[in-house]
Fold:
Amino acid sequence: MCLAVPGKLIERDGESGLVELHGNRVPVSVVLTPEAALGDWVLVHAGFAISSLSEAEAMETFALLGELEEAGKSDE
Amino acid sequence: MSERPTDLWLDRLRRAAAAVARPLAFMEICGTHTMAAFRCGLRALLPDSVRLISGPGCPVCVTAPGDIDLILQAAQKPDVVLCTYGDMLRVGGIDGDSLEQRRADGADVRIIYSTLDAVDLAEKSPQKQVVLAAVGFETTTPATAAAVLQAQRRGLKNFSILASHKRVMPALEALLAEGDVSVQGLMCPGHVSIILGAGVYRPLAQRYRMPCVVAGFEPLQMMQTLALLAEMNQQGQARVDNIYAPLVREQGNQAALRLTERVFEPCDAEWRGLGKIGQSGLRLAAEFEQYDAAARLGLSRREGGEPPGCRCGQVIKGKQTPDQCPLFATVCTPTRPIGPCMVSGEGTCAAWFKYGRATAAGEAS
Amino acid sequence: MSGTILLAHGGGGQLTDELLEQVVRPRLGNPLLDAQLDSGMIPLPDGTRLALTTDSYVVQPWEFPGGNIGRLAVCGTVNDLAVCGAKVLGLGLSLILAEGLEKAGLERVMDAVAQAAKQANVRIITGDTKVVGRGAADGLYITTCGIGLVPAGVDLSPMNVRQGDVLLINGPIGEHGLAVMMARQMPQMVCPLQSDSAPLNGLMEALLAAAPLTRFARDATRGGVAGLCADLAKASGKRIVLREADVPVTAATRRAAEVLGIDVLEVANEGKLVAVVAAEQAEAALGAMRSQCWGKGAAIIGQVGAAGGICEMVTNMGGRRIVQKPYGEQLPRIC
Structure:
């Protein structure tokens, strides 16, 4: 199971956060990623952030996975 | 043809497969890999000697008919609002019935995105009993645990769950321990591994001399996985490679694991098509028993619904092909699926059904 | 088939087909209905054909980002005529209103009807209004009919599709269905997508003028491009081959679809059509589409192969997969 989508954590208030995914903004619970800070990237599964990365790590990881190419397209 | 990033790994896969000079079967354990492989057309690219087998599949597909039946019973109770993931709507219970049908008959069935939506709904509807039909592997279980804790914190008396969460590792162990699985490597599920950690596969790799690669769901990751697995076979190695770092850490997500351990405890569980597997399920720990919907609503689990003849267990182990199953395409079809391999739209049997029919249509015209 | 009607029976997918095959066609079948085009075609003595279409709109919520049920009703009906090559003569509009509906809401819907009709350059020439008791309908429903005239010599049908023809679409897919699904299923989420609903009769006229060897067109509504192409493959008996890399999808759409776990190819559009055109006129067709305000993102997305009766997609990684008609209702999923 387990579809999950990466996005950037742009708001955080206690256990709640807001994640930006190409203009889509999804409320998430960050109870599983207490370490996640504003500006970090998180992987969102069913409304929960399940893993977090620093922005630098995220750029490297998702560039490898072809995500950045897509990020470029959204800036059209 | 322009060079794709996947071509490099495809090339390495071909060379390693040729060098090994015997058929290789690799198993993906997770339904999301099954679906991702289908979506990107991965199988069409594989060398003839390499097969990708779909393992147990997604947790929805392996939910036993008896567990679905409990969920259907709950949905039928007056004043119950049944919350679940969209995936669950069509899965058949003991009598082939489903939540989709129950909704048409008047049950209040809500599709949720987050388990916390169900908790919010319970808070807003004090006159209703909100039941969360919770399924999922390790990735999704913490979300259910978080919802139970949230309900406890808010003092909600009208929130409960029917949990059919499954644990991947005991099932995988059981498959491998039987010793009759014809598989030369495992594609380990990236998102389950985010929670469990890459470390859980190391004892397994050692004990069964089984190459393992922890991978994400992008085409590149999957192709790289197959190449690495083939190369390990060529070199006679059984490593665990984690190519989904840094998302997947060696020790997993400790916060998520602690949450799951606090709310649930392992128990034996029945898997559709595979039967009972020791310690492969989770039930609410004693402290949280009041959130058990079966007890609260007075439901009793019925057995059955596994029609004789279903060979999904053999198909999953790579021992048989779907057309060797007596139920395949006769009583078991995508619109009325019986085993997990047909329940999942991208399961092995469903894929065979589609491709088989497609080929037949092509020959006919 | 199960004994009761499920929501999925109305999804325009496999279950809808099943319902039509088992309940409707055996009782009502006739050559005009059995042609299964978006409009019924009545041949006239002068070689032209009268196109008649009807459609119902029950979308929830009935107001959504980028439009409302009124705009949808006009665009959908105009498009069902246009993709048959018909010039629209007029539309009828029948309203079913629920007791308690705010008048201001109805006014917004009628404003949208008027605006869309103006954009399509069509008129509403007949109508009806009924009110049902509170709870018997959710807000309001609209049923439409449309009538148009297909000029002599214009014959768009799956049967005309030939090997080597190309498939075009007039812009990025998935926006309408995802915008509505987000508004319905995930109101807590901010989604930048707007319904793409648009009248495509002007675009169809430009296409037919620039590419007389247009064989077939259909608007990719319920069932999305996947359902359309699977149907086209079945009806034509040909193998339809799509190229994933060429199917236009915006990044925001792709991400929204991923959040919901939905295949964007199966998502409904309300301002997108797929046209099949002879290869030698593909560039002319593409240019004609792109010259229109609702065709700026047009693209060639695939081609017609030999006999086969299935639709395949060549994926970004060079693999192949079968594209199937979706089952029915689209639901957010997590695995």
Confidence is low (pLDDT under 50) at residues 68-76 of chain A. The interface with chain C takes residues 1-3, 5, 7, 21-27, 44-46, 70-71, 73-74 of chain A (CB under 8 Å).
